[in-house]
Amino acid sequence: xxxxxxxxxxxxxxxxxxxxxxxxxxxxxxxxxxxxxxxxxxxxxxxxxxxxxxxxxxxxxxxxxxxxxxxxxxxxxxxxxxxxxxxxxxxxxxxxxxxxxxxxxxxxxxxxxxxxxxxxxxxxxxxxxxxxxxxxxxxxxxxxxxxxxxxxxxxxxxxxxxxxxxxxxxxxxxxxxxxxxxxxxxxxxxxxxxxxxxxxxxxxxxxxxxxxxxxxxxxxxxxxxxxxxxxxxxxxxxxxxxxxxxxxxxxxxxxxxxxxxxxxxxxxxxxxxxxxxxxxxxxxxxxxxxxxxxxxxxxxxxxxxxxxxxxxxxxxxxxxxxxxxxxxxxxxxxxxxxxxxxxxxxxxxxxxxxxxxxxxxxxxxxxxxxxxxxxxxxxxxxxxxxxxxxxxxxxxxxxxxxxxxxxxxxxxxxxxxxxxxxxxxxxxxxxxxxxxxxxxxxxxxxxxxxxxxxxxxxxxxxxxxxxxxxxxxxxxxxxxxx
Length: 482
Fold this sequence. Notes:
By secondary structure, this protein is mostly helical. Helix content is 77%, strand content 2%. The protein has a two-stranded antiparallel ribbon with strand order 1-2. A two-stranded antiparallel sheet has the order 3-4. A hairpin with a 4-residue loop joins β1 and β2 (67-69). α13 (264-287) packs parallel to α19.
């Protein structure tokens, strides 16, 4: 009994979200859809509370090593829960305006956050799979949340089918790893991998990486991303682009470094290939896009390639670089999607790049914010995106992968074209013929957009002074549970 209480204390953040999510579900079932706003507010409070619990919960291992709470997991969970809370805020107002508000929306995000927390704390292959499926099942429903919209239904179906395929690859790889090591725990797998990494184990590891690459939409496992980004409701896509990506990247770092650290040279080759393909697909694929959400999908593919460079390094500095990059990336992405949610003309959402022409006339402050975010994501110094790339490219070069880092720089130059095109349209092109004046922006979307842009520059200069030590502590305590 004492061991169970100790384990539940270590896993207090997930327990808080699970119990709170069930309570909110019962509340919504009794009151109905008119409780959507109330449940959204309570969900935000629950997620912020869970982040506080995660920050103060004891470190250690629970459930026979299946659950690990170390400084990396704590950092990741605080960031994940806060990002999920922002997604609830963005989505609540949009759902009300679109007249599809349902109390299930914030609850699904809460339940997805339970899975994402499990991913960050996975200590074996079973908890890894449970965490992935728990968050994925909620995301499948969210992708098709707008039931009357054909594109949303199509996005949900594509995401579900390809997600099932990735789960199959993941399970096949996990079964091979278990078969050749005799254990599900990362610690035991690491011991076998270091002593005798046979071809069967390597084969299983490759399948495991492929399944995880689907979850972060890294090329060549990215095929679901543009269609889902275009079809799913915009606030749902804002969630897809942020918290789940961070959770999956931490999971990849944990699985590879803790389970297969002794054969780093083997899996680093696979990650290098995935990174290079992600650079190419993201940079060149984005050049042909006209839809803003599809453009952000290709941008995310390229950026995941950059983040994978940090893990490829296989060093403490590499893990820190990945955390820095993903944290700054999440903030930038929320800014982009908040701007998309704040822009409409005559009640019609702005969804194409051409619609941004002449934005400086109607929304000069929004145009400034979008300009800052574009310069940040393309990696222009001294904006926040530059610092993220500085860390991952530096970690990769230090570990001997300078050629891959150089390829990432080239991809950044190519991708700069579509960000600079957006800036040029906003500031130098006249509005489209017949375009009406932009509608007033919703308060929550405008606030988040301006806050993200302000952080991208100039607040990032101050932010780095606390973010850099926090990520160093998280990476330094990786695997340390006491």
